[in-house]
Write a structure and sequence with these properties.
heterodimer, A: alpha/beta, 6-stranded mixed beta sheet, 4-stranded antiparallel beta sheet, B: mainly alpha, about 75% helix, about 0% strand, globular
Chain lengths: ~250, ~350
């Protein structure tokens, strides 16, 4: 890990599902501390792309580097990168057989090998940050969707990652719970966390993104700062997408 | 409560009639049992065929005089206290392993190591001045318990291994594991036991043959493992894909993903079927009589086949049934307790 290198460098990334070309020669660099929002219609490959970064999906060609560490076939590089890259999922994916606190302490204790006391102290710190320290002893099934997603964010933070990936973190939430999750994400962004966020929350993109990326059909179609992206989109497909997302 | 009771059971003339009729039938059966088993029964070791049949009820004298044959088979008579203690050791080990507060790898392995060593020392002898008793002479309840426990203890890790291999990312490994499971499942247990007891010694090199009992145990464990592996696989299928992905994203290793995330959830989902499999395994211990071991049921058969007690087979079977019932009913209730315990915090699921 070289923390002076770019957080993420993706070069000529290709991904196939059988004959289907899911990602077509993607190039993307994310600097440390940068917040990148990725949007695009469903099936455009945006989730697939960020899932390649921590190798939940294997890529077929191209280069992925995280803080200078190249993802190769060796298990070592995958482990190394997963330690530094946290992920928040659409479906929360909390472990239902463990309490909120155990969800947060498991990986730090097993992967970072820190003591239970230290892991619990860290977990409580981040549970306070996402504003649910009082739920620490409950099981995920006893929480609302918004609360579960905030726990999922805290769980990812407990590993003290350098980068956080968000894969449509608010898409599975009831409308009234979206704000509480976005608030937490805005706070994180303001504190300087490097974030790559697949989302349809255009308000969030406007507010925190340094760069907005529009993907369609497995390609990066357009990337720009939010001001330019929302007011002067260059590509026809981007304009169509924006009119559909913002038009109601 | 009383209102709904009246409505449910005496709501109409027909309903009342059915209720009373059913009560009558149940009452008659219970009365016949009590009458035979207690009121007109002969207790005590001094009962004989004549006194028993004169009384007209059950002849529990057969148990009073022959219980040691039923419980311990042909284990040497003077040494049967050892077999008795060995039974208690197994029972204690089972009870201890069922206590959630002792569920850690260290504690459980300690309990099992000490328990197995103690059981073996007691049964086999040859140490601490105990006379040696060959495995061929083991019999009755300790043998039945030993087979059951060993089947589970060897079979369960094997089942987990087979189930994990069957879902391996490497297709060859997954295929091979699937074939092994399906092959074993397509063979009757009896043929597996026969093969292990009789055919295997011809095929194995001398040093691998070992005692017949252990070969048979291995066969029973393999059979158990094939079925249990499929039960666990069913549990895997109930776990959302996101669980393993989240574990991967957190950087957990394969071993940790399996032991902390996947297997605990799979076992929770597979618990009812797993308890079922254990119940079946307990019942199937009675099959090893066919390869020459006198387990509980076979020992019971011997107990009344000695001329003077030939008439009292029903009593012996009732006695044995009670022993089976005690273990299996205990197992089922424990399963129910586990399910209730695991459901804590899952109210919304």
């Amino acid at each position: 890990m070289d923390l002076t290198a770019p957080a993420i460098e993706i070069t000529a990334l290709d991904k196939f599902y059988g004959a289907y070309h899911a990602l077509k020669s993607i190039n993307l660099t994310v600097a440390k501390g940068e917040k990148v929002v990725i949007c695009g219609p469903s099936g455009s490959g945006k989730s697939t792309m960020i899932r390649c970064i921590n190798q939940l999906e294997e890529h077929n060609a191209g280069l992925i580097r995280v803080f200078g560490t190249t993802l190769d076939d060796s298990l070592g590089s995958i482990d190394e990168i997963r330690k530094e890259v946290g992920m928040v999922f659409q479906q929360f994916n909390l472990f239902p057989h463990m309490t909120v606190l155990e969800n947060c302490t498991l990986a730090p204790m097993l992967v970072r090998k820190i003591s239970r006391a230290e892991a619990e102290a860290t977990a409580m710190k981040y549970l306070e940050k996402v504003r649910i320290p009082d739920q620490a002893q409950k099981f995920p099934g006893q929480l609302s969707g918004g609360q579960q997603q905030r726990v999922a964010i805290a769980r990812a933070l407990c590993m003290k990652p350098e980068v956080l990936l968000f894969d449509e973190p608010t898409s599975a939430l009831d409308p009234e719970m979206i704000a509480e999750v976005l608030d937490v994400m805005v706070t994180l962004a303001q504190e300087g966390m490097t974030m790559v966020c697949v989302t349809h929350e255009m308000g969030f993109a406007r507010k925190v993104a340094d760069r907005v990326i529009f993907m369609d059909n497995g390609e990066i179609v357009e990337e720009a700062d939010p001001e330019t992206f929302f007011t002067q989109p260059k590509n026809e497909r981007t304009r169509l997408f924006l009119s559909q997302v913002l038009g109601h | 409560m009383t209102a709904s009771f009246r409505k449910n059971y005496f709501g109409s003339f027909g309903s009342s009639l059915m209720t009373l009729f059913s009560l009558g039938v149940i009452g008659a059966i219970l009365w016949a049992l009590v009458d035979w088993g207690i009121l007109r029964a002969t207790f005590g070791a001094d009962g004989t065929q004549e006194t028993c049949q004169a009384a007209g009820g059950a002849c529990w004298s057969v148990i009073a005089t022959r219980w040691r044959v039923i419980l311990f088979g042909i284990y040497p008579y003077e040494e049967q206290w050892r077999a008795g203690i060995a039974c208690l050791v197994v029972a204690l080990v089972i009870v201890l392993s069922c206590l959630p507060r002792l569920w850690s790898f260290g504690r459980l392995s300690m309990i099992w190591l000490i328990g197995t060593a103690l059981f073996y020392a007691l049964m086999r002898g040859g140490v601490f001045g105990l006379a040696a008793v060959n495995e061929q002479q083991w019999g009755g309840l300790p043998l039945t318990l030993f087979i059951f426990v060993a089947t589970g203890v060897i079979g369960m890790p094997l089942a987990i291994l087979l189930a994990l291999l069957r879902r391996s990312e490497y297709r060859v490994i997954a295929r091979v594991s699937g074939w092994i499971i399906d092959t074993i499942r397509s063979l009757p247990l009896l043929s597996i036991l026969f093969t292990c007891a009789i055919v295997l010694p011809f095929m194995l090199p001398g040093f691998l043959i070992g005692e017949k009992l252990y070969r048979v145990l291995f066969g029973a464990a393999l059979f158990f493992a094939a079925y249990q592996a499929e039960i666990i696989r069913g549990g895997f299928q109930g776990i959302p894909k996101g669980q393993e992905e989240a574990a991967k994203a957190l950087g957990l290793s394969y071993v940790h993903r399996m032991t902390r995330i996947v297997l605990p959830q799979a076992f929770r989902l597979a618990l009812p079927a797993t308890i079922n499999q254990f119940v079946i395994a307990f019942m199937e211990t009675s099959l090893i009589v066919v390869v020459g071991f006198m387990e509980l049921l076979a020992a019971g058969n011997t107990a009344f086949k000695t001329g003077e007690w030939k008439f009292a087979y029903a009593e012996v079977y009732v006695f044995i049934a009670f022993i089976y019932f005690a273990f299996v009913f205990g197992l089922s209730r424990y399963g129910a307790y586990l399910e209730a315990r695991m459901n804590v915090g899952h109210a919304k699921d």
